[in-house]
């Protein structure tokens, strides 16, 4: 009996650890909706319990082996089903818009194009709970314009994670400064690529909501003394407000199973998350519906219903066995 309980407990502990770590059944369900892998792991857990019960039964005549085995099997089924059900049916809250990306230049007369983007199609990491959102930005002078030095001040949700970003950052408690030069200079760095410290994406089983920070070109007079001095150092001149910047943000092309369901303000391209503005792009929020994930989540709910029914049957069987053994004694 002791061996059986230890083996069953080990099986439960192993499965729970895998599920909570996102490496087991629920991780697969929520990420890839791989029903086969999910059922395989549950089958392995129950098989371990069954083997433990058989080994214990061969060495002991304890009459409680059968109800204990049924109860452990029901616990495995309930643990996986309820955790998976919680992930599939969890409600979604739009990420708060708290960040801003502000552009300053060394020469305000040079017209610029500021292109940024992310790709919400790859929200798998956000679904798994990873922090941050992949973000890229590129600044170029308009055709025929001379080279120019620029600096972007990132605050709030726009701040990048230095360990996951291909960019040199000047990091302060309240701001981050990304610098570069666009034009004909040999050492010009016209953009950056990184991952934000806070996610812009919230994802449920079949829906993705993205909240973008504000992209602007504010007056340098609003800067505090320390930030103004830091910008002056990297720009090699006092920071200036550019006179003309064409701002463009693109959320990536959507596949045939993805649909842009809402956007505020409306997207500039029908069916694609894309916005353009001059000198300031106000915060944008948009939502995407994933039909493939919706179909998979329905399959998952069907499997969850079957597993919960099996768990209930196992508990009923365990109770019947206990009552019957009690009457026999």
From TrEMBL:
Protein name: Uncharacterized protein
Organism: Actinophytocola algeriensis
Tagged with keyword Transmembrane helix: yes
Keyword Membrane: yes
Lineage top rank: taxon: Bacteria
Keywords: Membrane, Transmembrane, Transmembrane helix
Transmembrane segments: 36-56, 68-88, 301-323
